[in-house]
Amino acid sequence: MRTVQRLKTATNILAVLFFLSIVTYAFILVPFGVFESAQLRTVDIFFRVFHSFREVPQQINAIAVVAIDDTSLQQVNRKWPWDRDVYAAMLKNIDSARPRAVGFDIIFIGESAQKANDALFQKAIKDSDKVVLASYYTDRWEHVLPHAPFADAATSYGLINKPRDKDYRVRDTRFFVQPSKGGARHIDYSFEIKVLCEYYGCSFRDISYDGREILLENKAVGKSISIPADPDGTFTINYLAGISDFTIIPAWRIINGQFDKRELEGRIVLIGQTNEIIHDVYPTPLLDMPGVLINGNAILTVLSRRFMTTTPPYLNSLVILFFSAIAVFLTYRCAPLKGFLCVFLEIAVFLGLSSWLFSIGRIADYFSVVFCVAVIYLAVTFYKYVCLIFESVSLKQDAITDGLTGLYILKYFTLRIPAEFDRAKRYNMKLSCIMMDIDHFKHFNDTYGHEQGNVVLKGFAALMKETFRKSDMLVRYGGEEFCALLPGVGRGEAFESAERFRRKLQSLPIIISGQDVRVTVSIGVVSFPDTYIDSAQDFVAYADKALYEAKNGGRNKTVYYAKK
Q1: Whether 452 contacts 542, CB under 8 Å
Q2: C-alpha dist (Å) from residue 450 to 422, 447, 480
Q3: Half-sphere exposure of 474 toward its Cβ, with a 13 Å CA cutoff?
Q4: Which of 382, 468, 477, 553 could form a disulfide with 481 if both were Cys (CB 3.0 to 4.6 A apart)?
Protein backbone atom coordinates (compact mmCIF):
# COMPACT_ATOMS: atom_id res chain seq x y z
CA MET A 1 0.00 0.00 0.00
CA ARG A 2 2.83 2.34 0.83
CA THR A 3 4.43 1.68 -2.57
CA VAL A 4 1.17 2.36 -4.39
CA GLN A 5 0.75 5.60 -2.47
CA ARG A 6 4.27 6.66 -3.36
CA LEU A 7 3.65 5.92 -7.03
CA LYS A 8 0.44 7.95 -6.96
CA THR A 9 2.28 10.82 -5.32
CA ALA A 10 4.94 10.60 -8.00
CA THR A 11 2.34 10.81 -10.78
CA ASN A 12 0.75 13.85 -9.13
CA ILE A 13 4.14 15.52 -8.98
CA LEU A 14 4.64 14.67 -12.66
CA ALA A 15 1.27 16.24 -13.45
CA VAL A 16 2.28 19.47 -11.73
CA LEU A 17 5.63 19.45 -13.53
CA PHE A 18 3.85 18.87 -16.82
CA PHE A 19 1.58 21.86 -16.21
CA LEU A 20 4.59 24.00 -15.34
CA SER A 21 6.28 22.77 -18.52
CA ILE A 22 3.34 23.99 -20.63
CA VAL A 23 3.42 27.38 -18.90
CA THR A 24 7.20 27.57 -19.35
CA TYR A 25 6.87 26.67 -23.02
CA ALA A 26 4.09 29.21 -23.65
CA PHE A 27 5.47 32.17 -21.70
CA ILE A 28 9.25 31.67 -21.83
CA LEU A 29 10.40 29.36 -24.62
CA VAL A 30 8.02 30.68 -27.31
CA PRO A 31 8.64 34.41 -26.72
CA PHE A 32 12.39 33.80 -26.74
CA GLY A 33 12.19 31.95 -30.05
CA VAL A 34 13.43 28.54 -28.90
CA PHE A 35 11.20 26.82 -31.47
CA GLU A 36 11.36 29.61 -34.01
CA SER A 37 12.39 27.39 -36.95
CA ALA A 38 9.41 25.06 -36.50
CA GLN A 39 7.07 28.03 -36.11
CA LEU A 40 8.39 29.65 -39.28
CA ARG A 41 8.13 26.42 -41.28
CA THR A 42 4.49 26.09 -40.18
CA VAL A 43 3.78 29.60 -41.48
CA ASP A 44 5.49 28.59 -44.74
CA ILE A 45 2.98 25.75 -45.09
CA PHE A 46 0.16 28.28 -44.85
CA PHE A 47 1.80 30.38 -47.56
CA ARG A 48 2.06 27.39 -49.89
CA VAL A 49 -1.48 26.16 -49.18
CA PHE A 50 -3.01 29.58 -49.69
CA HIS A 51 -0.99 30.15 -52.85
CA SER A 52 -2.36 26.88 -54.24
CA PHE A 53 -6.02 27.74 -53.58
CA ARG A 54 -6.49 31.50 -53.74
CA GLU A 55 -6.26 33.74 -56.75
CA VAL A 56 -3.28 36.00 -57.22
CA PRO A 57 -4.27 39.66 -56.67
CA GLN A 58 -5.02 41.52 -59.86
CA GLN A 59 -2.43 44.12 -58.86
CA ILE A 60 0.17 41.67 -60.15
CA ASN A 61 -0.72 43.02 -63.58
CA ALA A 62 1.02 46.23 -62.56
CA ILE A 63 4.37 44.38 -62.42
CA ALA A 64 6.43 43.03 -65.29
CA VAL A 65 9.75 41.28 -64.89
CA VAL A 66 12.54 41.41 -67.45
CA ALA A 67 14.50 38.26 -66.71
CA ILE A 68 18.18 37.75 -67.44
CA ASP A 69 17.81 34.00 -67.77
CA ASP A 70 19.88 31.21 -69.34
CA THR A 71 18.23 31.67 -72.74
CA SER A 72 19.02 35.39 -72.72
CA LEU A 73 22.66 34.68 -71.91
CA GLN A 74 22.78 32.42 -74.98
CA GLN A 75 20.72 34.62 -77.33
CA VAL A 76 22.55 37.86 -76.61
CA ASN A 77 25.82 36.03 -77.26
CA ARG A 78 27.87 38.41 -75.14
CA LYS A 79 30.34 37.48 -72.43
CA TRP A 80 28.94 37.70 -68.92
CA PRO A 81 28.85 40.15 -67.25
CA TRP A 82 27.39 42.10 -70.12
CA ASP A 83 28.87 45.40 -71.14
CA ARG A 84 26.72 48.33 -70.22
CA ASP A 85 25.76 49.10 -73.78
CA VAL A 86 23.55 45.99 -73.59
CA TYR A 87 21.68 47.50 -70.65
CA ALA A 88 21.48 50.81 -72.51
CA ALA A 89 19.77 49.10 -75.44
CA MET A 90 17.50 47.19 -73.06
CA LEU A 91 16.48 50.33 -71.18
CA LYS A 92 15.89 52.28 -74.39
CA ASN A 93 13.45 49.64 -75.65
CA ILE A 94 11.73 49.39 -72.27
CA ASP A 95 11.31 53.15 -72.11
CA SER A 96 9.67 53.16 -75.51
CA ALA A 97 6.78 51.16 -73.99
CA ARG A 98 6.18 54.00 -71.47
CA PRO A 99 6.32 52.13 -68.12
CA ARG A 100 5.62 54.06 -64.93
CA ALA A 101 8.75 52.88 -63.10
CA VAL A 102 11.87 50.88 -63.99
CA GLY A 103 13.90 49.14 -61.31
CA PHE A 104 17.27 47.54 -61.96
CA ASP A 105 17.82 44.79 -59.38
CA ILE A 106 21.47 44.78 -60.46
CA ILE A 107 24.39 46.51 -58.77
CA PHE A 108 26.36 48.64 -61.22
CA ILE A 109 29.56 49.25 -59.28
CA GLY A 110 32.46 51.26 -60.58
CA GLU A 111 33.58 52.21 -64.03
CA SER A 112 33.84 49.56 -66.74
CA ALA A 113 36.69 49.10 -69.20
CA GLN A 114 34.47 50.45 -71.99
CA LYS A 115 33.85 54.06 -70.94
CA ALA A 116 31.82 54.69 -74.07
CA ASN A 117 29.38 51.96 -73.01
CA ASP A 118 29.10 53.57 -69.57
CA ALA A 119 28.22 56.83 -71.26
CA LEU A 120 25.52 55.11 -73.34
CA PHE A 121 23.98 53.57 -70.28
CA GLN A 122 24.18 56.84 -68.34
CA LYS A 123 22.36 58.64 -71.14
CA ALA A 124 19.67 55.94 -71.34
CA ILE A 125 19.06 56.25 -67.59
CA LYS A 126 18.82 60.03 -67.79
CA ASP A 127 16.53 59.97 -70.83
CA SER A 128 14.19 57.50 -69.13
CA ASP A 129 13.81 59.67 -66.01
CA LYS A 130 12.07 56.85 -64.15
CA VAL A 131 14.91 54.49 -63.29
CA VAL A 132 15.65 53.26 -59.77
CA LEU A 133 18.98 51.51 -59.23
CA ALA A 134 20.02 49.07 -56.53
CA SER A 135 22.50 49.62 -53.69
CA TYR A 136 23.32 47.55 -50.62
CA TYR A 137 24.92 47.74 -47.19
CA THR A 138 27.81 45.53 -46.13
CA ASP A 139 28.04 43.84 -42.74
CA ARG A 140 30.09 46.83 -41.58
CA TRP A 141 27.35 49.22 -42.63
CA GLU A 142 29.28 50.49 -45.61
CA HIS A 143 26.86 51.72 -48.26
CA VAL A 144 27.86 50.35 -51.66
CA LEU A 145 26.39 52.73 -54.23
CA PRO A 146 25.96 52.46 -58.00
CA HIS A 147 28.64 54.04 -60.19
CA ALA A 148 28.36 57.77 -59.48
CA PRO A 149 27.35 58.86 -63.03
CA PHE A 150 24.59 56.26 -63.04
CA ALA A 151 23.42 57.23 -59.57
CA ASP A 152 23.28 60.89 -60.61
CA ALA A 153 21.36 60.06 -63.78
CA ALA A 154 18.81 57.82 -62.04
CA THR A 155 15.81 59.20 -60.23
CA SER A 156 17.04 57.38 -57.14
CA TYR A 157 18.63 54.24 -55.76
CA GLY A 158 17.68 52.01 -52.84
CA LEU A 159 19.05 49.16 -50.79
CA ILE A 160 18.21 45.55 -51.66
CA ASN A 161 19.37 43.98 -48.36
CA LYS A 162 17.17 41.13 -47.20
CA PRO A 163 17.41 39.71 -43.65
CA ARG A 164 17.64 35.92 -43.38
CA ASP A 165 15.96 33.77 -40.76
CA LYS A 166 17.70 30.93 -38.91
CA ASP A 167 16.97 28.54 -41.76
CA TYR A 168 18.33 31.10 -44.29
CA ARG A 169 14.92 31.66 -45.86
CA VAL A 170 13.90 35.14 -46.95
CA ARG A 171 10.58 35.96 -45.31
CA ASP A 172 11.08 39.68 -44.70
CA THR A 173 12.56 42.59 -46.50
CA ARG A 174 14.14 45.70 -45.10
CA PHE A 175 12.26 48.79 -46.22
CA PHE A 176 14.73 51.15 -44.58
CA VAL A 177 17.87 51.29 -42.48
CA GLN A 178 19.08 54.01 -40.14
CA PRO A 179 22.86 54.14 -40.36
CA SER A 180 24.82 56.73 -38.45
CA LYS A 181 26.73 59.37 -40.37
CA GLY A 182 28.86 61.81 -38.43
CA GLY A 183 27.03 60.94 -35.22
CA ALA A 184 23.60 61.68 -36.71
CA ARG A 185 21.15 59.01 -37.79
CA HIS A 186 19.25 59.19 -41.06
CA ILE A 187 16.95 56.87 -42.97
CA ASP A 188 17.91 55.15 -46.21
CA TYR A 189 14.89 53.62 -47.92
CA SER A 190 14.86 50.42 -49.88
CA PHE A 191 14.80 49.66 -53.58
CA GLU A 192 11.15 48.56 -53.36
CA ILE A 193 10.08 51.78 -51.58
CA LYS A 194 11.85 53.92 -54.20
CA VAL A 195 10.23 51.95 -57.05
CA LEU A 196 6.79 52.31 -55.42
CA CYS A 197 7.41 55.99 -54.91
CA GLU A 198 8.16 56.36 -58.63
CA TYR A 199 5.08 54.30 -59.51
CA TYR A 200 2.77 56.41 -57.34
CA GLY A 201 4.28 59.64 -58.65
CA CYS A 202 5.63 60.72 -55.27
CA SER A 203 8.65 62.85 -54.59
CA PHE A 204 11.48 61.00 -52.90
CA ARG A 205 11.83 63.95 -50.54
CA ASP A 206 8.31 63.29 -49.31
CA ILE A 207 8.99 59.79 -48.00
CA SER A 208 8.70 59.70 -44.21
CA TYR A 209 8.40 57.25 -41.33
CA ASP A 210 6.31 58.01 -38.24
CA GLY A 211 7.44 55.08 -36.11
CA ARG A 212 4.79 52.71 -37.41
CA GLU A 213 4.25 53.46 -41.10
CA ILE A 214 6.19 54.64 -44.10
CA LEU A 215 4.26 57.40 -45.85
CA LEU A 216 4.56 58.08 -49.57
CA GLU A 217 2.97 61.45 -50.23
CA ASN A 218 1.88 62.70 -53.64
CA LYS A 219 1.33 66.35 -52.93
CA ALA A 220 0.28 67.04 -56.50
CA VAL A 221 -2.92 65.03 -56.08
CA GLY A 222 -3.10 65.27 -52.28
CA LYS A 223 -2.80 61.51 -51.76
CA SER A 224 -0.56 59.47 -49.49
CA ILE A 225 0.23 55.78 -49.36
CA SER A 226 0.88 54.22 -45.94
CA ILE A 227 3.04 51.11 -45.56
CA PRO A 228 3.42 49.46 -42.13
CA ALA A 229 6.98 48.69 -41.08
CA ASP A 230 8.69 47.75 -37.84
CA PRO A 231 10.97 50.30 -36.15
CA ASP A 232 14.01 48.40 -37.40
CA GLY A 233 12.75 48.72 -40.96
CA THR A 234 11.67 45.11 -41.49
CA PHE A 235 8.55 44.30 -43.43
CA THR A 236 6.95 40.87 -43.73
CA ILE A 237 6.55 39.86 -47.36
CA ASN A 238 3.21 38.30 -48.24
CA TYR A 239 4.26 35.78 -50.85
CA LEU A 240 1.18 36.11 -53.01
CA ALA A 241 2.76 35.05 -56.30
CA GLY A 242 5.04 32.27 -57.46
CA ILE A 243 7.44 32.40 -60.38
CA SER A 244 4.81 31.34 -62.91
CA ASP A 245 2.34 34.01 -61.74
CA PHE A 246 4.44 37.00 -62.84
CA THR A 247 4.60 38.43 -66.32
CA ILE A 248 8.16 37.48 -67.19
CA ILE A 249 9.81 38.61 -70.41
CA PRO A 250 13.26 37.24 -71.28
CA ALA A 251 15.85 39.99 -71.53
CA TRP A 252 16.92 38.90 -75.05
CA ARG A 253 13.43 39.74 -76.39
CA ILE A 254 13.64 43.21 -74.92
CA ILE A 255 17.14 43.77 -76.29
CA ASN A 256 16.11 42.56 -79.74
CA GLY A 257 12.84 44.50 -79.66
CA GLN A 258 10.77 41.30 -79.96
CA PHE A 259 8.09 42.09 -77.40
CA ASP A 260 4.64 43.61 -77.19
CA LYS A 261 4.90 47.08 -75.71
CA ARG A 262 1.54 46.58 -73.99
CA GLU A 263 3.31 44.08 -71.73
CA LEU A 264 5.22 46.98 -70.14
CA GLU A 265 3.03 50.02 -70.63
CA GLY A 266 2.06 51.72 -67.39
CA ARG A 267 3.68 49.02 -65.30
CA ILE A 268 6.50 48.65 -62.85
CA VAL A 269 9.30 46.96 -64.76
CA LEU A 270 11.76 45.05 -62.64
CA ILE A 271 14.99 43.91 -64.28
CA GLY A 272 17.00 41.16 -62.64
CA GLN A 273 18.74 37.79 -62.88
CA THR A 274 16.69 34.62 -62.69
CA ASN A 275 19.25 31.95 -63.57
CA GLU A 276 20.83 29.95 -60.74
CA ILE A 277 24.33 30.20 -62.24
CA ILE A 278 24.50 33.88 -61.27
CA HIS A 279 23.57 32.92 -57.67
CA ASP A 280 20.70 35.36 -57.21
CA VAL A 281 18.21 32.68 -56.10
CA TYR A 282 17.10 32.36 -52.46
CA PRO A 283 14.92 29.98 -50.41
CA THR A 284 11.49 31.46 -49.58
CA PRO A 285 8.19 30.14 -48.21
CA LEU A 286 7.26 29.37 -51.85
CA LEU A 287 10.48 27.40 -52.39
CA ASP A 288 13.50 28.93 -54.19
CA MET A 289 12.92 32.27 -55.89
CA PRO A 290 15.14 34.81 -57.72
CA GLY A 291 15.81 38.02 -55.85
CA VAL A 292 13.98 40.12 -58.43
CA LEU A 293 10.78 38.13 -57.81
CA ILE A 294 11.21 38.49 -54.04
CA ASN A 295 11.24 42.23 -54.65
CA GLY A 296 8.21 41.72 -56.87
CA ASN A 297 6.31 40.00 -54.03
CA ALA A 298 7.24 42.79 -51.62
CA ILE A 299 5.94 45.39 -54.08
CA LEU A 300 2.81 43.30 -54.79
CA THR A 301 2.12 43.13 -51.04
CA VAL A 302 2.00 46.94 -50.94
CA LEU A 303 0.03 47.33 -54.19
CA SER A 304 -2.62 44.82 -53.04
CA ARG A 305 -2.62 46.20 -49.47
CA ARG A 306 -2.47 42.63 -48.16
CA PHE A 307 -0.08 43.35 -45.35
CA MET A 308 1.01 40.71 -42.84
CA THR A 309 1.13 41.56 -39.16
CA THR A 310 2.61 39.39 -36.43
CA THR A 311 0.61 38.53 -33.32
CA PRO A 312 2.25 39.81 -30.11
CA PRO A 313 4.12 37.10 -28.15
CA TYR A 314 1.98 37.44 -25.03
CA LEU A 315 -1.19 36.83 -27.07
CA ASN A 316 0.38 33.74 -28.65
CA SER A 317 1.19 32.48 -25.16
CA LEU A 318 -2.38 32.97 -23.94
CA VAL A 319 -3.76 31.14 -26.97
CA ILE A 320 -1.35 28.25 -26.36
CA LEU A 321 -2.39 28.06 -22.71
CA PHE A 322 -6.10 28.22 -23.61
CA PHE A 323 -6.00 25.39 -26.13
CA SER A 324 -3.68 23.38 -23.89
CA ALA A 325 -6.15 23.64 -21.02
CA ILE A 326 -8.97 22.43 -23.28
CA ALA A 327 -6.80 19.53 -24.46
CA VAL A 328 -6.02 18.50 -20.88
CA PHE A 329 -9.71 18.63 -19.93
CA LEU A 330 -10.89 16.65 -22.98
CA THR A 331 -8.16 14.03 -22.76
CA TYR A 332 -8.52 13.54 -19.02
CA ARG A 333 -12.32 13.35 -18.96
CA CYS A 334 -12.84 11.18 -22.06
CA ALA A 335 -11.93 7.62 -22.93
CA PRO A 336 -8.80 7.29 -25.11
CA LEU A 337 -10.61 6.96 -28.46
CA LYS A 338 -13.17 9.63 -27.67
CA GLY A 339 -10.38 11.83 -26.30
CA PHE A 340 -8.43 11.36 -29.53
CA LEU A 341 -11.45 12.39 -31.60
CA CYS A 342 -12.06 15.43 -29.37
CA VAL A 343 -8.41 16.51 -29.58
CA PHE A 344 -8.42 15.95 -33.34
CA LEU A 345 -11.51 18.15 -33.58
CA GLU A 346 -9.84 20.77 -31.38
CA ILE A 347 -6.82 20.86 -33.69
CA ALA A 348 -9.15 21.10 -36.71
CA VAL A 349 -10.98 24.05 -35.11
CA PHE A 350 -7.68 25.75 -34.33
CA LEU A 351 -6.40 25.25 -37.87
CA GLY A 352 -9.67 26.64 -39.21
CA LEU A 353 -9.28 29.74 -37.04
CA SER A 354 -5.62 29.97 -38.04
CA SER A 355 -6.55 29.82 -41.72
CA TRP A 356 -9.02 32.64 -41.23
CA LEU A 357 -6.43 34.71 -39.36
CA PHE A 358 -3.85 34.07 -42.08
CA SER A 359 -6.36 35.06 -44.76
CA ILE A 360 -6.74 38.48 -43.13
CA GLY A 361 -2.98 38.88 -42.76
CA ARG A 362 -2.36 37.78 -39.16
CA ILE A 363 0.71 35.65 -38.59
CA ALA A 364 0.55 33.76 -35.30
CA ASP A 365 2.34 30.82 -33.73
CA TYR A 366 0.42 28.13 -35.58
CA PHE A 367 2.94 25.44 -34.65
CA SER A 368 2.91 25.56 -30.86
CA VAL A 369 -0.80 24.94 -30.32
CA VAL A 370 -0.82 21.84 -32.53
CA PHE A 371 2.43 20.65 -30.95
CA CYS A 372 1.23 21.22 -27.37
CA VAL A 373 -2.19 19.66 -27.93
CA ALA A 374 -0.61 16.55 -29.48
CA VAL A 375 1.94 16.24 -26.66
CA ILE A 376 -0.76 16.80 -24.05
CA TYR A 377 -2.92 14.05 -25.52
CA LEU A 378 -0.03 11.59 -25.43
CA ALA A 379 1.13 12.67 -21.97
CA VAL A 380 -2.31 12.72 -20.34
CA THR A 381 -3.25 9.40 -21.95
CA PHE A 382 -0.03 7.92 -20.60
CA TYR A 383 -0.73 9.48 -17.20
CA LYS A 384 -4.23 7.95 -17.16
CA TYR A 385 -2.79 4.60 -18.17
CA VAL A 386 -0.23 4.72 -15.36
CA CYS A 387 -2.92 5.75 -12.89
CA LEU A 388 -5.04 2.83 -14.07
CA ILE A 389 -2.13 0.49 -13.40
CA PHE A 390 -1.70 1.96 -9.94
CA GLU A 391 -5.40 1.60 -9.25
CA SER A 392 -5.27 -2.02 -10.40
CA VAL A 393 -2.30 -2.63 -8.15
CA SER A 394 -4.13 -0.95 -5.29
CA LEU A 395 -7.25 -3.03 -5.85
CA LYS A 396 -5.17 -6.18 -6.04
CA GLN A 397 -3.35 -5.17 -2.89
CA ASP A 398 -6.65 -4.53 -1.12
CA ALA A 399 -7.92 -7.95 -2.22
CA ILE A 400 -4.98 -9.81 -0.67
CA THR A 401 -4.25 -7.72 2.43
CA ASP A 402 -6.03 -7.25 5.70
CA GLY A 403 -7.63 -3.83 6.00
CA LEU A 404 -6.79 -3.40 9.69
CA THR A 405 -3.17 -4.58 9.84
CA GLY A 406 -1.98 -4.32 6.24
CA LEU A 407 -0.72 -7.93 6.37
CA TYR A 408 -1.61 -10.57 3.83
CA ILE A 409 -4.89 -12.42 4.41
CA LEU A 410 -5.22 -16.17 5.01
CA LYS A 411 -6.69 -16.82 1.54
CA TYR A 412 -3.64 -15.36 -0.18
CA PHE A 413 -1.33 -17.31 2.15
CA THR A 414 -3.23 -20.52 1.34
CA LEU A 415 -2.71 -19.87 -2.38
CA ARG A 416 0.98 -19.05 -2.03
CA ILE A 417 2.20 -21.65 0.45
CA PRO A 418 2.03 -24.68 -1.94
CA ALA A 419 4.19 -22.91 -4.53
CA GLU A 420 6.69 -21.72 -1.92
CA PHE A 421 6.96 -25.17 -0.33
CA ASP A 422 7.27 -26.97 -3.69
CA ARG A 423 10.04 -24.62 -4.74
CA ALA A 424 11.95 -25.20 -1.47
CA LYS A 425 11.50 -28.94 -1.85
CA ARG A 426 12.53 -28.99 -5.53
CA TYR A 427 15.69 -26.95 -5.06
CA ASN A 428 16.45 -28.14 -1.48
CA MET A 429 16.08 -24.60 -0.19
CA LYS A 430 15.43 -23.61 3.42
CA LEU A 431 11.94 -22.48 4.36
CA SER A 432 10.55 -21.70 7.80
CA CYS A 433 7.06 -20.99 9.08
CA ILE A 434 6.32 -19.13 12.30
CA MET A 435 2.81 -19.29 13.75
CA MET A 436 1.89 -16.78 16.49
CA ASP A 437 -1.07 -16.27 18.75
CA ILE A 438 -1.57 -13.31 21.11
CA ASP A 439 -1.97 -14.59 24.64
CA HIS A 440 -5.36 -14.09 26.34
CA PHE A 441 -6.54 -11.73 23.60
CA LYS A 442 -10.22 -12.56 24.17
CA HIS A 443 -9.89 -11.54 27.81
CA PHE A 444 -8.16 -8.34 26.67
CA ASN A 445 -11.09 -7.53 24.37
CA ASP A 446 -13.58 -8.25 27.08
CA THR A 447 -11.68 -6.00 29.49
CA TYR A 448 -10.78 -3.03 27.30
CA GLY A 449 -13.14 -3.34 24.33
CA HIS A 450 -12.74 -4.24 20.70
CA GLU A 451 -11.54 -0.77 19.72
CA GLN A 452 -8.54 -1.07 22.02
CA GLY A 453 -8.10 -4.62 20.80
CA ASN A 454 -7.72 -3.25 17.28
CA VAL A 455 -5.00 -0.93 18.56
CA VAL A 456 -3.11 -3.97 19.86
CA LEU A 457 -3.55 -5.82 16.54
CA LYS A 458 -2.22 -2.84 14.59
CA GLY A 459 0.77 -2.51 16.93
CA PHE A 460 1.44 -6.24 16.70
CA ALA A 461 1.44 -6.09 12.86
CA ALA A 462 3.68 -3.01 12.87
CA LEU A 463 6.20 -4.83 15.11
CA MET A 464 6.15 -7.81 12.75
CA LYS A 465 7.01 -5.55 9.80
CA GLU A 466 9.78 -3.99 11.84
CA THR A 467 11.26 -7.33 13.05
CA PHE A 468 11.06 -9.58 10.03
CA ARG A 469 12.59 -9.08 6.61
CA LYS A 470 10.81 -7.36 3.70
CA SER A 471 11.09 -10.57 1.72
CA ASP A 472 9.19 -12.53 4.40
CA MET A 473 5.47 -13.09 3.92
CA LEU A 474 3.59 -11.73 6.95
CA VAL A 475 0.01 -12.97 7.34
CA ARG A 476 -2.94 -12.32 9.60
CA TYR A 477 -3.98 -15.93 9.96
CA GLY A 478 -7.09 -15.38 12.07
CA GLY A 479 -8.52 -12.97 14.62
CA GLU A 480 -5.45 -12.77 16.92
CA GLU A 481 -3.39 -15.41 15.13
CA PHE A 482 -0.53 -14.43 12.82
CA CYS A 483 1.98 -16.20 10.59
CA ALA A 484 5.37 -15.42 9.05
CA LEU A 485 6.76 -17.38 6.11
CA LEU A 486 10.56 -17.03 5.87
CA PRO A 487 12.11 -18.18 2.55
CA GLY A 488 15.79 -19.15 2.76
CA VAL A 489 15.78 -19.32 6.58
CA GLY A 490 16.61 -22.50 8.54
CA ARG A 491 15.80 -23.74 12.01
CA GLY A 492 18.29 -21.75 14.09
CA GLU A 493 17.74 -18.41 12.40
CA ALA A 494 13.96 -18.85 12.36
CA PHE A 495 13.87 -19.71 16.06
CA GLU A 496 16.06 -16.71 16.90
CA SER A 497 13.83 -14.39 14.82
CA ALA A 498 10.76 -15.67 16.60
CA GLU A 499 12.36 -15.23 20.02
CA ARG A 500 13.55 -11.72 19.12
CA PHE A 501 10.03 -10.78 18.16
CA ARG A 502 8.59 -12.32 21.34
CA ARG A 503 10.99 -10.43 23.58
CA LYS A 504 10.39 -7.12 21.80
CA LEU A 505 6.63 -7.53 22.08
CA GLN A 506 6.87 -8.40 25.78
CA SER A 507 8.91 -5.30 26.49
CA LEU A 508 6.70 -3.02 24.37
CA PRO A 509 4.39 -0.93 26.62
CA ILE A 510 0.88 -0.24 25.40
CA ILE A 511 -0.92 2.60 27.19
CA ILE A 512 -4.66 2.02 27.41
CA SER A 513 -6.89 4.23 29.56
CA GLY A 514 -3.81 5.45 31.40
CA GLN A 515 -2.64 1.91 32.19
CA ASP A 516 0.61 0.30 31.06
CA VAL A 517 -0.56 -2.95 29.49
CA ARG A 518 1.85 -5.68 28.42
CA VAL A 519 1.05 -8.13 25.60
CA THR A 520 2.69 -11.52 25.15
CA VAL A 521 2.62 -14.08 22.37
CA SER A 522 2.94 -17.85 21.97
CA ILE A 523 4.94 -19.00 18.95
CA GLY A 524 5.39 -22.24 17.05
CA VAL A 525 8.22 -22.71 14.55
CA VAL A 526 8.93 -25.32 11.88
CA SER A 527 11.69 -25.43 9.27
CA PHE A 528 12.30 -27.37 6.08
CA PRO A 529 14.43 -29.40 5.36
CA ASP A 530 15.64 -29.45 8.96
CA THR A 531 12.47 -31.35 9.69
CA TYR A 532 11.34 -33.85 7.11
CA ILE A 533 8.00 -32.64 5.75
CA ASP A 534 6.16 -34.16 2.82
CA SER A 535 3.62 -31.49 1.86
CA ALA A 536 2.68 -27.85 2.31
CA GLN A 537 -0.33 -28.86 4.36
CA ASP A 538 1.91 -30.76 6.80
CA PHE A 539 4.30 -27.82 6.85
CA VAL A 540 1.60 -25.46 8.14
CA ALA A 541 0.09 -28.14 10.37
CA TYR A 542 3.42 -28.79 12.12
CA ALA A 543 3.86 -25.07 12.80
CA ASP A 544 0.37 -25.02 14.22
CA LYS A 545 1.18 -28.02 16.46
CA ALA A 546 4.27 -26.24 17.79
CA LEU A 547 2.10 -23.23 18.55
CA TYR A 548 -0.36 -25.47 20.38
CA GLU A 549 2.49 -26.83 22.50
CA ALA A 550 3.65 -23.33 23.35
CA LYS A 551 0.17 -22.35 24.51
CA ASN A 552 -0.26 -25.51 26.54
CA GLY A 553 3.19 -25.12 27.99
CA GLY A 554 2.38 -21.86 29.77
CA ARG A 555 2.26 -19.34 26.86
CA ASN A 556 4.70 -16.50 26.17
CA LYS A 557 7.25 -18.91 24.73
CA THR A 558 8.60 -20.20 21.42
CA VAL A 559 8.45 -23.90 20.56
CA TYR A 560 10.16 -25.57 17.62
CA TYR A 561 8.32 -28.52 16.16
CA ALA A 562 10.30 -31.72 16.59
CA LYS A 563 8.85 -34.59 14.64
CA LYS A 564 8.47 -37.66 16.80
Answers
A1: no
A2: 39, 9, 12
A3: 18
A4: 477
Closest CA to 57 of 385, 296, 374, 409: 296
What is the distance between the alpha carbons of residues 372 and 240, in angstroms, rounded to a whole number? 30
- Round to the nearest angstrom and report the end-to-end CA distance of the chain: 42
d(CA 186, CA 188): 7
CA distance 268 to 266: 7
- Containing 482, the helix (H) or strand (E) segment is strand 481-487
Which residues does residue 485 pair with via DSSP β-bridges, in sequence order? Answer: 433, 473
Question: Which pLDDT does position 447 carry in this prediction?
Answer: 81
Helix (H/G/I), strand (E/B), else coil: 443: helix
Residues in Cβ contact with 533 at an 8 Å cutoff, skipping those fewer than 6 apart = 421, 526, 539, 542
Polymer length of the chain:
564
Burial annotation 518-532 (CB, 10 A radius, 16+ → b, else e)? ebebbbbbbbbebbe
Tell me the residue type at 48.
Answer: R
- The DSSP line for 38-51 is HHHHHHHHHHHHHH
Burial of 35 (0-12, 13-18, 19+ CB in 10 A): middle
Question: Going by DSSP bridges, is the β-strand pair 184-185/180-181 parallel, antiparallel, or unpaired?
Answer: antiparallel
Dihedral angle over CA of 273, 278, 283, 285, nearest 10: 10
H or E segment and range at residue 28: none
Judged against a pLDDT cut of 70, whether residue 2 lies above it is answered with no
Which residues 6+ apart lie within 8 Å of 164 measured at CB? 170
Q: In whole angstroms, give the CA distance from residue 126 to residue 119.
A: 11
Cross-strand pairs, 136: 144
* Half-sphere exposure at residue 165, Cβ-oriented, CA atoms within 13 angstroms: 21
The pLDDT value recorded for residue 131 is 96
> How buried is 113 (Cβ within 10 angstroms: 0-12 exposed, 13-18 middle, 19+ buried)?
exposed
Tens-digit pLDDT profile for residues 458-489:
989 999 999 999 999 999 998 899 999 999 99
For residue 185, is pLDDT > 70?
no
Of residues 266 and 511, more confidence is placed in 266
Gap between the Cα atoms of 5 and 526, Å rounded: 35
